[in-house]
Amino acid sequence: MSPPVRGTARGRPSPAPSLGGLLASKEIVVACGPGGVGKTTTAAAAAATAAVRSGGRVLVLTVDPARRLADALGVKGIGNEAVRVPPQAFAAAGVQPKGELWAAMLDTKQSWDDLVRRHAPDARTREQILANPLYRNISARFVQSHDYIAMERLYELHAEGCYDLLVVDTPPSRNALDFLDAPARMADFFSSRLLRWLIVPYRSRLVNVASRPFYQVADRILGSQFLSDIAEFFILFQSMYDGFVTRAKAVERLLADRRTSFLVVSTLEPTPLREAETFVGALEARGLHLGALVLNKVLPPFLLDPAGAQAAEAFVRDHERLAKALAGELPGIPKAQAAQLARVLQTVGRSFSDYRLVAEREQEQRAELSRAPEVLVSVPSVDRDVVDLAGLLALGERLWPR
């Protein structure tokens, strides 16, 4: 079956590589990268800017437990159900968007309940699963529950066809690898030897002689009721095995589809950059599309201006002469403080030169990285945090220059 027709405001490729062109030509953009590099904010800023400039219906979905996204968008009660960012919020930020911006945050428990209701073979099995004691703690205890259900929710939202663009904010990069592998791992788990050992005695009254000691020890340590709950849970869940496997394969196809791209966010600090490079390699190994690399908190380009370097050298070389000339001429600095002013000028010159060296190294790193993604964006450091929609749109201007 052909995919649903998307909005006419989107889906057209950009004439030149840019983040705007990437967002306009894709239906899903998955933002990923190390923690603490501004990934959540970048995802929200990209989505907000796409809604303003390209139009259509744009949804930003966060699977990061932090609630920074809702705070920045000014949306109350954000959860599994998408909430529209009101036009008044854009008006307060001084813009009139061409499209709509929606936001949602993964509710693991609700998403699992919806999954059970959708895939359970009958009403009796559905109610047994929902009432099982182990299932009621699934979001905190079940292997891969958060990562798997995030992929399930992404697939569901895309299949509904209600949005022209989905921007997904993932957990930090090492968890995001689990995010990518979760569907296959979940299917593997349901066919694992461990699971068969757990449920065999509850499917049959005949327990293998070799396995009896295991269950005797487990009964003493965990209690027979606990083992019974586990077995019941997985026996019931196995009734949905075919649905899980089918959906897992569909999710994997969606991630590899040409309509999906990945946006890796990092800084140029050594540890985050190594993690980001690891993730870039993982995307390439899986045959997934790396559309953009966003480098946050880079030093400003004026540090590379030769005129600035010459001024800094003059401050260091001629600090005493400059101080004598300036002392008494600057408000609040009498001639008697010329020596102190000289030290300040020398320190400023040396500090500028040090920052320039770091900026040159960053420029070299960007040149090396530019061969990997289609789009490379550098975002200079800012003095204040992004706390509202106006701040997100200002960041969007840096991500996607006009």
UniProtKB/TrEMBL annotation:
Residues 27-300 form the ArsA/GET3 Anion-transporting ATPase-like domain. InterPro entries: ArsA/GET3_ATPase-like, ATPase_ArsA/GET3, P-loop_NTPase. Pfam families: ArsA_ATPase (PF02374). SUPFAM superfamilies: P-loop containing nucleoside triphosphate hydrolases (SSF52540). PANTHER family: ANION TRANSPORTER ATPASE-RELATED, ARSENICAL PUMP-DRIVING ATPASE ARSENITE-TRANSLOCATING ATPASE. This is ArsA family ATPase. The lineage of its organism: Bacteria, Bacillati, Actinomycetota, Acidimicrobiia, Acidimicrobiales.
